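User: Structure please.
Assistant: Input sequence and predicted structure:
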Amino acid sequence: MSRRRAAILISGRGSNMVSLIEAARAEDFPAEIALVLSNRPDAAGLERAKEAGIATCVIDHKAHPTREDFEQAMDAALASHAIDFICLAGFMRVLTDWFVERWAGRTVNIHPSLLPLFRGTQTHRRALEEGVLVHGCTVHFVVPELDAGPIIAQAVVPVVPGDTQESLAARVIVQEHKLYPKALRLICDGTARLENGRVVFSRGWDADAALHSPG
């Protein structure tokens, strides 16, 4: 099996990065984590990646006069490591259209809501304010419009009485750590593919599966 080479872009501790690294240790996983790149030299995830034996790279956005210069440096680093796919995992920089289009169909992100609900930030607070009974996370392809790309996979959690932003976030991130590796597997083994701006799947799944809230 030919494994696809993936890079993870982080800005902080990289908790989703760790879940991807762990999943990729399996011999049958169709991707290898070939690089962890951060825009912050002090990102805690860099040390965790080094401990896992993965190549790391810092492209400090503050050292570049423009966003374009910064992204061109990132692009060069990714090319030098022969990267096939990019996984954004807490990467706190908005990417320009140039970079997104250059890596179109090869960049994925995980977002802490059931898109298209609650794009942007403060997703858990907004979910509680709206009174939804289910919440969750989404893995999607990255497009120039923020959090608007074709959806690859979603996980759902109940919103329960007494939830706070912190308790809801804690429940969602458990599912993020499960969902992101699953989505990367689907992409890299060809089960999920991008066609005409939508994700299509080569196999079906249980159409009767459901989460009821209240359960």
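The mean pLDDT is 95.
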